[in-house]
Specification:
This is KIB1-4 beta-propeller domain-containing protein. It holds the Pfam family Beta-prop_KIB1-4. Residues 51-340 form the KIB1-4 beta-propeller domain. The longest helix has 8 residues, at 128-135. The protein is mostly beta strands. The protein has helices at residues 50-53, 128-135; strands spanning 13-15, 27-31, 43-46, 56-62, 65-70, 77-79, 86-88, 102-107, 113-119, 122-127, 136-141, 150-154, 159-163, 171-172, 187-193, 198-203, 208-211, 219-222, 235-244, 247-259, 266-283, 288-295, 301-305, 311-314, 325-328, 345-348, 353-356, 370-372. It is built from 2 helices and 28 strands. It has one domain (13-372).
């Protein structure tokens, strides 16, 4: 195992794919704070982890924890690769069935299993191999409550459910207000705000809801107010939410889907980002209304987005990172292995230039990359 000789300042690491996918017993990270000329040794490797990571991939990370999930039992684990501490959460099969979420196993004569899924007028079946990666999207963990309350975004309509370690089952999270219930109104991202100990969730139409650690006391922070970027066969769109210095930010990511001429396979590549801040009251000539206002400078901070909870670091606090950038890791609306091809890098807000860290043509693209801040302080 790699020695734990990282510095005391926050050091964002990027979890890298490997040659054997989820059959590996090793986690390899790329440390982006290492200076360019020293990057020959910038990888940090932790081995002999098969009992913790075999057959699992990461669906989230927060405060030194990776959130891993298997394909069979669909049981999330919180795992610290430095201390090897592990905390179990209830199986995602325990999410309550309702009119928008029903998953039933179907057993074939050959012993294989498929799952019949029913979401409001949307019926489909999916194999055991694919259910985890297309039906569950992201897992977010609170940071400063003793319970480590967890939220999962799940389903094609992207609903929310909550659980804590030791719970027997998940409970349904906030529902969208009746006046805005549309098939396209989806929860895109969730962020835990340390200061007021609430979760904030943003939808496909830029509506923002806040709720407490029990999924209650729901407050509409921002109403739905604009048409979203639509996903299609040529492009994907991901939306993230975060607070920076008390300001609510929306980060929009545009991903191109294209076909390789050589082997006719489809590839994905991030082509741009847009950041907006929420202003509750923008006054016009005769009215006052909320609005998302474009942001082109982060005051020396940089954002880190992907399946991890979005976080930010200042370049003076974490030497080696570039200021006013968005660091991104693999993240798609459909995270099947054939759709992931090492789409990780940074986007500079001022120049609007992109730099990719990984080789998108590499044969190793699984498990997907994810941002992670190591910590020895969690147990």
């Amino acid at each position: 195992m790699h020695s734990l000789d990282f510095n005391c300042y926050p050091s964002p690491w990027l979890l890298l794919p490997n040659d054997v996918g989820e059959a590996s017993d090793t986690l390899t990270f790329y440390d982006v704070t290492i200076e360019e000329e020293a990057r020959v040794g910038c990888q940090r490797r932790f081995s002999s982890l098969s009992s913790h990571i075999y057959g699992r991939r990461c669906f989230g990370s927060k405060d030194g924890w990776l959130v891993t999930l298997d394909k069979i039992d669909l049981q999330p684990h919180l795992f610290n690769p430095l201390t090897k501490a592990e905390i179990l959460l209830p199986s995602l099969f325990t999410i309550p069935k309702d009119q928008g979420h029903i998953i039933e196993p179907e057993y074939a004569p050959d012993g294989s299993t498929r799952f019949f899924c029913n979401e409001i007028s949307l019926y489909f079946t999916v194999g055991e191999e694919g259910l985890r990666d297309i039906y569950f999207h992201k897992i977010i963990v609170s940071s400063n409550d003793s319970y480590r309350t967890t939220v999962v975004i799940y389903g094609f309509t992207k609903a929310l459910a909550l659980a804590r370690p030791g719970d027997q089952a998940w409970v349904l999270g906030p529902q969208l207000p009746p006046y805005s219930l549309r098939h396209d109104e989806q929860f895109e991202d969730v962020y835990y705000h340390d200061e007021d100990q609430r979760f904030y969730a943003i939808t496909h139409f830029s509506m923002v809801l806040a709720f407490d650690l029990n999924g209650q006391n729901v407050e509409i922070i921002c109403p739905a107010m604009q048409d979203p970027c639509w996903r299609n066969r040529h492009s994907d769109y991901m939306c993230y939410i975060a607070f920076l210095s008390g300001t609510l930010l929306k980060i929009e990511r545009v991903i191109e889907i294209y076909e390789e001429e050589i082997d006719r396979t489809y590839k994905v590549k991030t082509i741009g980002f847009f950041i907006s801040k929420y202003v509750p009251n923008v006054t016009g000539s005769s009215y006052s209304c909320p609005q998302w206002v474009p942001v082109n400078d982060l005051g020396g901070y940089s954002l880190f987005v992907g399946c991890n909870q979005t976080f930010y670091l200042h370049h003076m606090v974490a030497p080696g990172i570039r200021p006013n950038c968005i660091y991104f890791a693999d993240h798609l609306s459909d995270m099947l292995p054939e759709n992931v091809n090492q789409d990780a890098g940074l986007f500079e807000l001022h120049s609007r230039q992109l730099q990719h860290f990984l080789d998108s043509n590499s044969q190793s693209s699984w498990p997907p990359s994810i941002w992670f801040i190591p910590s020895l302080s969690v147990s």
